[in-house]
Amino acid sequence: MGKVVVVGSLNCDLVMRVERLPSEGETVGALGFETFVGGKGCNQAIAAARAGADVSMVGCVGDDEYGSVILEALSGAGVDAARVRRAQSGTGVAQIFVDRRGANVVGVAPRANGELSAADVEAARSSIQDSAVLLLQLEIPLETAVAAARVARSAGTKVVLNPAPMRERSPALSTLLGLVDVLIPNETEAARLAGYAGVPTVIVTLGGRGALLREAGKPPQAIDPFSVDVVDTTAAGDAFCGAFAASLAGGANAHAAARWATAAGALACTRMGAEPSLPHRPAIERLLATQGT
User: Fold this and answer.
1) I want to staple 13 with a disulfide (CB 3.0 to 4.6 A). Which of 30, 38, 219, 280 is the partner?
2) What is the C-alpha separation between 187 and 166, in angstroms, rounded?
3) Residue 33 to residue 293: CA distance in whole angstroms
């Protein structure tokens, strides 16, 4: 597969397993607690690498233990982290609660991710321009994402955006969407984006119901789901985005890449935690071979 550059967030995920998600004002006992590397940028970069792409990461971590753990994880996954900068702020942190059904709620403290700037993008210009796909999310400053998309478009690099977490409508968001080739929202994000036009390809992820592909000038196409035993849905969307970018960079069309990504997203639901659940290429190929009709 081809080259993918991810410009995005890098977090440490603090994951608490609970019987059920707490209500407002309620304290619940934990069934277990684990720490993983995460952040949408980190997860999607590792997912793309495991799916077979040549991946480079552009981001910021703190000069702390969490930052070191993240850099080691990226390196271990085969992701080039030469453009990950140590920032003055601490490494980003996400607190995640996961219940027995695999449902989750997440709170994020961006910290160093908020320091990722247009200057960091400029330092990675040649890498972005030499890639087949630029993969973005919205856990970094919006102006940084816009700067990265502009660099990519100037070189003909395809821009893929996962609009999460969703931002309020703004001129900057409109500018970013105008630079995007492929948009990958979930149902909630897609509803909030209603009224924005101009993105040539939109893939709405539907959880256990697969995905819906809309390409300009073509009728919508349903991407059927895969049957798996769900343990934790935390990284399903990130697995989808990373695998899609890898497949697209390798020359697949949007439908084939979305099918590949749907298989990756399903497999990510079968293990606890974000990074540990991101599937490798052989596992994706096996699932497609057994349920790919």
Assistant:
1) 38
2) 11
3) 38
Q: How far is CA 15 from CA 31, 44, 81, 94, in A?
A: 11, 18, 24, 8
Non-local (6+) Cβ contacts of 184 within 8 A are 160, 161, 162, 163, 202, 203, 204, 205, 240, 241, 244
Q: What is the pTM of this model?
A: 0.92
For the segment 134-187, what is each residue's pLDDT rounded down to a tens digit?
A: 999 999 999 999 999 999 999 999 999 999 999 988 999 999 999 999 999 999
Question: Which are the contacts of 130, defined by CB distance < 8 A and separation ≥ 6?
Answer: 3, 155
DSSP string, 141-206: -HHHHHHHHHHHHHHT-EEEE---SPPPP-HHHHHHHTT-SEE--BHHHHHHTTT----SEEEEE-
Find the angle CA(58)-CA(158)-CA(161) to the nearest 5 degrees: 65
What are the Cα distances from residue 243, in Å, to 30, 133, 265?
32, 12, 8
| The total number of structural domains that make up the chain | 1
Q: How far apart are CA 226 and CA 11, in angstroms?
A: 29
In 221-280, alpha helices (H): 236-249, 254-268
Query: Would you call the peptide bond into 276 cis, given omega within 30 degrees of 0 as the criterion?
Result: no
Residue 9 is which amino acid? S
What is the Cα–Cα distance from 162 to 185, expressed in whole angstroms? 6
Choice among 196-205, 220-229, 236-245 with the minimum mean pLDDT: 196-205
Domain range for 268 is: 3-291
Residues recognised as catalytic: 238
The domain that holds 126 is classified in CATH as 3.40.1190.20
Among candidate residues 202, 200, 194, the one with its CA nearest the CA of residue 216: 200
Could you give the 3-state DSSP secondary structure of residue 228? coil
Measure CA 164 to chain center.
Answer: 8
Cβ contact 15:34 at 8 Å: yes
pLDDT of residue 287: 94
